[in-house]
Amino acid sequence: MALEIVVNGKTYPCRQTMGAMLRFKRETGKEASAIGADSVTDLVTYLWCCVLSACKHDGVEFAYTLEDFADSLTMEDVAKWTDSINQGHNTEDVEKKSNPQ
After folding, report:
1. How far is CA 8 from the centre of its chain?
2. Half-sphere exposure of 100 toward its Cβ, with a 13 Å CA cutoff?
3. Is residue 63 classed exposed, middle or buried when 0-12, 13-18 and 19+ CB atoms within 10 A define those classes?
């Protein structure tokens, strides 16, 4: 199962894809591999690209501009996503840790 993110109470798919990397390059002029952990702007932009790409692939409507998306996120949201990506967790892994049985 893919990672998901909640924006204004609605859940959207979020995956790192080639499309997300292309979008990031078009938006910023930089390769996604050049994103530094200290660049919040790049992280938010790449996250938006990942959600936009996953939504397009899955046929989910996602009408947020980059600024609208950023206005809906907190630093905690970005940190959770970054931690999940860095640790290679998917949604099931996160849910298992949150809801041990």
Report:
1. 14
2. 1
3. exposed
Amino acid code (one letter) for 52: L
Cβ atoms of 21 and 32 closer than 8 Å: yes
Q: Torsions phi, psi of 76, nearest 5? A: -65, -40
- Using CA atoms, how far residue 11 sits from 35, 60, 67, in Å, is 25, 10, 18
Instruction: Reduce the DSSP state of residue 7 to 3 states and report it.
Output: strand
Rg (CA), the chain: 13
The backbone torsions φ and ψ at residue 59, rounded to the nearest 5 degrees and listed phi first, read 75, 30
Predicted TM-score of the model (pTM)? 0.79
Residue 32 CB coordination number (10 Å): 19
**pLDDT by residue, tens only, the chain of 101 residues:** 468 888 999 999 999 999 999 999 999 999 999 988 788 899 999 999 999 999 999 999 999 999 999 999 988 888 888 787 777 644 444 333 333 44
